TrEMBL record:
InterPro entries: NT_sf, PolA_pol_head_dom
Family: Belongs to the tRNA nucleotidyltransferase/poly(A) polymerase family.
Keyword vocabulary terms for this entry: RNA-binding, Transferase
Protein name as annotated: Poly A polymerase head domain-containing protein
Residue stretches spanning the membrane: none
């Protein structure tokens, strides 16, 4: 017979904490940011732009807010089912195990947010052993057994305890035993033992992440005595002294920043002092792998408040630790590049909110809007260093931006390539903007497009030039145009534009105007345009038996001709090529005589 635990109705699991004993029930939370603007837990554009008119000041400030914290944990039907199954396992085998959900799930539930990140802490066995018991129980019930994944401990990377993971009712659950950590003198690697729930709570990164939900007793446990209080204050602090916490695992500095930015919480003063400590910064740069640093930064950049996070990184003196530059730069890096980079990110954030999410709409075949947004923000952040290079081991000139993305953050090589391409295209868009707005550089652009075989009609120069740019950058053309508006000379420096609504309006108007022009020229998706003639056909027209640079040049001319003649046919194209070749030969004969 299956043993089933009937949990109380949803919403009836009460907090057992002295901090809440005498409080009356509150309505569901509607949290406000430090600026007083209501914050909804949704996508990039869920927050009004006025919330971002003074990001730098917000990040640097110490004003605390009052956060609405729920009086009870509300379980979903899936969570009730999962927890009931885990308790069935404990009862069936007489394990006597206390099951506690740890960390972020508890925090998010108390803030009224959903969370699929369920980490179970066990008080008397390892995660792998418990997962094996779950499978034994599944077999006993005649159900399918699930695979168990084990993440081994890695003390060198501050991963001190083995974690087991398995799928339960369609949800991945992590299992790990409660632990205590003791450090020998002059050692950074602790002796890890099964510990008490309080010992485990005290060794966690932040007080707001030290809360437990005890599945057995159906209660929230605040064993540091500060987790609920700091959550209500909107305060980011550590259970133990911040410096020792960060020296234990320096990545916790970036986690503290990420959570402060995500929830618009305030960093505690002693935490900021510890994060700025030279030894902590040195340990972050040397002890933590670049993959882990890059992962944290990527989470910040993909979250709701990336500007807040980067302001913290800058203000705490961590910018050059996180975004390590290569040696022997051309031109040399300046001390102020951290301020310039974050200022450009802030300007981009404000402008993106002003324009709307269409900035990240690159077409059905391009990457998702979220991915375009992410790469756009990286492109904006590194705009001030887009023209900086270094020499690699093969004496090849490489953009510094590529180094930062590939090696400092260990992100995908394709990310680095895309961001560099966006910067290159943004420079070309600057020329296009000038051409579209004033025709001032019309002759210069036309001269670049023309050669002895092809002369672009003056009224089609804009279409051909814009089309070539879009064919290079493809689905990221709106992002490249967006970045170009940030650095367009007439608008001025992005860092000089912050807080100036008129400058923001000018950039917005310029972006919308150029985007409209490109659309009216019927160029959106022009990178999908197939050449009317392939290399073999061109060889036939030119009456040559082998390819080579000559055919490559004619392929480039063919693209320009098609952009100038969007309704042109294959026959018309071949006729143009023949006439151009004959005319060129006549001109050469005339010049020789």
């Amino acid at each position: 017979m299956s043993l089933r635990l009937l949990l109380p109705p949803r919403g009836s699991l009460r907090l057992l904490s002295p901090l809440h004993r005498h409080q009356t029930p509150r309505p569901p939370p509607f949290r406000t940011t430090a600026t007083g603007v209501p914050q909804r837990a949704s996508s990039f554009f869920s927050i009004p732009i006025r919330a971002f008119t003074s990001i730098s000041g917000m990040a640097a400030g110490t004003q605390q807010q009052t956060v609405e914290v729920r009086e009870s944990v509300e379980l979903t039907e899936e969570e009730e089912r999962i927890f009931a199954r885990l308790l069935d396992v404990v009862r069936h085998f007489g394990l006597g195990t206390q099951l506690r959900v740890a960390g972020g799930w508890v925090r998010d539930k108390l803030l009224g947010k959903g969370s699929a990140d369920i980490d179970i802490a066990l008080d008397n066995m390892t995660g792998q052993n418990f997962c094996e018991r779950v499978n034994e129980y599944s077999k006993f019930m005649g159900e399918e057994q699930k695979g168990i994944g084990v993440i081994q401990c890695n003390p060198d990377q501050s991963k001190h305890l083995e974690t087991a993971r398995m799928l339960i009712y369609g949800i991945w659950i992590d299992f790990v035993n409660l632990r205590s950590e003791k450090y020998a003198e002059n050692s950074r690697i602790p002796t890890v033992e099964i510990g008490t729930a309080k010992e485990d709570a005290l060794r966690r990164d932040l007080t707001i992440n030290s809360l437990f939900f005890n599945i057995n007793t159906k209660s929230v446990e605040d064993l540091t005595g500060r987790g609920l209080e700091d959550l209500k204050k909107g305060l980011i602090d550590t259970p133990l002294p911040a410096k020792s916490t960060f020296l234990d695992d320096p990545l916790r500095v970036l986690r503290a920043i990420r959570f402060a930015a995500r929830f618009s919480f305030t960093l505690a003063e002693d935490l900021k002092e510890a994060a700025s400590d030279e030894k902590v910064k040195s340990e972050l740069g040397s002890k933590i792998s670049r993959e882990r640093i890059g992962h944290e930064v990527d989470l910040m950049m993909s979250d709701k408040h990336p500007v807040n996070a980067l302001c913290h990184i800058r203000d705490l003196g961590l910018f050059y630790v996180v975004f390590a530059f290569p040696e022997k730069l051309e031109p040399p890096a300046l001390d102020k590049h951290d301020w310039l980079c974050v200022s450009h990110l802030e300007a981009a954030w404000n402008l993106a909110h002003s324009i709307g999410r269409s900035v990240f709409s690159g077409g059905s075949d391009s990457k998702s809007q979220d991915e375009q947004q992410r790469l756009c923000l990286y492109s904006a952040l590194f705009t001030p260093v887009r023209n900086m290079f270094y020499m690699d081991k093969k004496s090849k000139k490489v953009p510094v931006v590529s180094y930062i993305i590939r090696y400092s953050l260990k992100l995908k090589a394709s990310d680095a390539d895309t961001i560099v391409n966006i910067h290159v295209a943004s420079e070309k868009f600057a020329e296009l903007i000038l051409l579209l707005e004033s025709n001032e550089n019309l002759e210069t652009v036309k001269e670049k497009l023309d050669d002895e075989y092809l002369e672009i009609p003056t009224d089609l120069v804009k279409r051909v030039f814009a089309g070539l740019i879009l064919r290079e950058i493809k689905g990221f053309w709106r992002v490249a145009l967006f970045i170009s508006t940030l650095v367009y000379p007439e608008v001025g420096n992005a860092s000089d534009s912050l807080g100036k609504q008129d400058e923001l309006d000018k950039m917005k108007e310029r972006y919308i105007s150029v985007e409209r022009s490109i659309t009216e020229l019927d160029l959106d998706g022009v990178w999908k345009m197939k050449p009317l003639l392939d290399g073999k056909a061109i060889m036939g027209v030119m009456q040559v038996k082998s390819g080579g640079p000559l055919i490559g040049k004619w392929q480039q001319r063919l693209v320009k001709w098609q952009l100038a003649h969007p309704q042109g046919t294959m026959e018309e194209c071949m006729e143009w090529m023949k006439q151009s070749e004959q005319q060129s030969k006549r001109q050469k004969i005339e010049c020789s005589t």
